[in-house]
Here is the input.
Amino acid sequence: MIRSDLVLRLAAQNPHLYERDCQAVVDAILGRISDAIAAGDRVELRGFGSFTIVESRARMGRNPRNGAPVSVEAKSKLHFKPGKEMRDRVNLEAAVRCIG
Here is the structure.
């Protein structure tokens, strides 16, 4: 699902709202989540999962083309940990696809 699909579904489920209002709601929610993550805060959406920033240390890597050592700088990575309800739902749907 992409952002525009989310807006369309939200508008379909709430016929009393204009599509542009639904767009503003989705933009506000995703913007606030993005701002919190960028500030280094942990964002938790109960039943869905949590987003955190994980620091990766500097290390020596290798260039895959010629095998030469390359210095890889320290960086921050976005980590998503699904919540229990989401894991159960995904695993249940995967099991149903395998059986059916």
